[in-house]
Amino acid sequence: MQTLNHLASVSRRVAGSLRPLATNLSLSTDSRDGGGTGGALEAGWGTASSWSTGEHFNGQSEWAVLGEMQETEEKVRELEAENRKGKAYVDSWQRRLTETSVLLKQVEEPGARGSYLKDSEKAEMYRLHKQNPEVYTVEKLAKDYRIMRQRVHAILWLKEIEEEEEKNLGHPLDDSVELLLDTFPDFFNSHDREFHVASLPYKPDFKVMPEGWDGITKDVDEVHYEISKKEDEMLYREFLEKMNFNKKKMAGEVKCHRYSRRRPTDGWTFTVEKLGSRGKRGGGGGWKFASMPDGSSRPLNEMEKMYVRRETPRRRRRILP
């Protein structure tokens, strides 16, 4: 009797241990047979376990961890790029404000520029003009460097004088002052007007127009600009005349001391002005010629024409620079 009881208990234990295996086998068989509900519980007997291949670490796939880290790094890089872009935009505000102030000053006063030329830029200007004067003319250099034509002439003449001095001395000139100006340009006021702006007396100008008049009046700023351009051309011509005269003085062609004005041995040469048909001088119809000591005459040369132009009065109001 005891033997039968022991056999029954052993049978029950064996049956209990085999029950989970039978359940798994039945589920796997149902899924392979095409059951719609067993797809999610498929054991996948023909595939290797991810736990044995090492694709999981602490219950999580290593590739999933790497993918998340890569996405995080990409987001960090995007944020850093946005920060750099924003920082560059914020840092450029000082330059933008400076440019805006310069533009506002130009609107307020059209002639204001305030551009400072370094000595290296002046040397480059002289080199370009000397290398190809047909291309790099005075007008082109003035437009490129945004300065007046008079200033371009002065810079070219100054560099020409410096080059001649260096050839005579045999060594370069001292440029300590130029280096100081180039190093600290903000300490010195170079100029504040780069093209002429006419100073006009603004006052009310009332006119009585005829009935039915439908004419168009010019804008005040347009008239101001046209007058400024005309005066600028006049000042430019006068500057060239004075500069050419000073060049001749430095070259020794213009004699103004008392020993050079003594009477020549063959006599003086006089400038004679013949009256025109209307009996007027100057622009009224007359012309000038040179009377030689032997009684002959000849036309005026370039030097004498320059003297005549300098002696001719300019009948205009005073132009303030």
TrEMBL record:
<protein>
    <submittedName>
        <fullName>Uncharacterized protein</fullName>
    </submittedName>
</protein>
<feature type="region of interest" description="Disordered">
    <location>
        <begin position="279"/>
        <end position="304"/>
    </location>
</feature>
<dbReference type="Pfam" id="PF12298">
    <property type="entry name" value="Bot1p"/>
</dbReference>
<feature type="region of interest" description="Disordered">
    <location>
        <begin position="25"/>
        <end position="45"/>
    </location>
</feature>
<dbReference type="InterPro" id="IPR052851">
    <property type="entry name" value="GCD1_mitochondrial"/>
</dbReference>
